């Protein structure tokens, strides 16, 4: 799902992106596995 492209015309993209960012910045975020960035590309 692309939430970065054309955000000014896509309200759902603007609303969806902040939620995971808040979660990842919180103390609740505690991943058990680390994935190297190059594997995500």
Which features would summarize this protein structure in a list?
41 residues; mainly alpha; 44% helix; flat
Overall description:
Helices cover 44% and strands 0% of the residues. The chain is built from three helices and no strands. By secondary structure, the chain is mainly alpha-helical. It has helices spanning 11-16, 18-25, 37-40. The model has no long low-confidence stretch (mean pLDDT 89). The chain starts with 10 loop residues before the first helix and ends with a helix.
Main sheet attributes: strand count, strand direction, barrel closure: none
Q: Kindly state the number of beta strands.
A: 0
Sheet/helix structural class? mainly alpha
Gyration radius, rounded: 13 Å
Strand content: under 5%
User: End-to-end span in angstroms?
Assistant: 14 Å
Shape: flat
Number of helices: 3
Order of helices and strands: HHH
Mean pLDDT: 89
Please bin the fraction of helical residues. 40-55%
Unreliable stretches covering 5 or more consecutive residues: none
TL;DR of this structure?
This protein is mainly alpha-helical. It is 44% helix and 0% strand. The chain has helices at residues 11-16, 18-25, 37-40.
Lay out the secondary structure:
Blueprint: H1 11-16, H2 18-25, H3 37-40
